[in-house]
Amino acid sequence: MATHLDQLPLIEAPDKVCIALIGGTHLNDAIERDGGLEGRFTVETPEGTSPPFYLGQYEEVPYIYVHFHGDNQWLQTWLGLHQLGVRNVLTGATAGGIHPAYRLFDLVVPDDFGDLNIDRPTGIPLQYLEGPTFAFPRFTPPMDATLRQILIEEARKTVRARRELDDISIHPVGSVWQARGGRFETASEIRALRQQGADLVTLNVATEITYARQLGLHLACLNVISNPAEGVGDWTWDTIRQVYRRLNPICTEIMLRCLPRIAAIPADAPRSGDTLREHPPFTTDQ
Question: What is the pTM of this model?
């Protein structure tokens, strides 16, 4: 699907940008209009050329925008972000609500995840990591506490400032599960996910959480409940269209408003993932 992103001028890759926004169906074309995007570029990675990256700026804070999770170029996207010096990532998506408290249009900043991915690499290949001890990271917690708190606070400020959004709740915790791609889940699969602890289901963010931790990037996630998960409630395609029209601009505003606060995080501030990927050497000589 052609967008005006294709008309942005080609530019040289920046030397270093520390923040990236990963676009999904929670943003769509809203960030193209409102994100201050200035140009597009690619980088060469060990897995080949990256998808287009877009350089944007919000309140004098530069950032890299990745459209629709990198258009299935998973390794090229994340290796490229790592090469560019990215340290902080905000991602997200629309999602099916499983938890009974989640209503249409609600926002969720999840604090846990599950991964049923079957169609993309389950992790960054060992040869691209800083060392073999980074191949088996821990995920307790799976996402960065500092970024999550910023995202929660900015979501509350943005939504609560508008009376027309009073019907929207912001959930500061939840377990987001990534299902297999290519189709919606069945009602039976959703019942199984609920029994396993899933609160909402989507298709991409668990892969991104995994890659970020392995590469030493800090990540938080914003999800929009675009429909009740299959078997939980009734919905139509028009239900999702309403979510796009109403909430894509709001999600874009929330994520952009996070950027100055992320840029102000001291470089030496302790972060949740700092010690969770450094597995001890595989040897008895310790």
Answer: 0.95
Give the pLDDT confidence of 53-91 residue by residue, as tens digits.
999 999 999 999 999 999 999 999 999 999 999 999 999
The strand pairing partners of 65, in sequence order, are: 21, 54
pLDDT in tens, 114-171: 999 888 899 999 999 987 778 889 999 999 999 999 999 999 999 999 999 999 999 9
Specify the fold of 4-263.
Rossmann fold (3.40.50)
Six-digit token pair at 82? 């790592």
Q: How far are the Cα atoms of 54, 123, 222 from residue 143, in angstroms, in the given order?
A: 24, 16, 12
Return the structure tokens found at 154: 């900015």
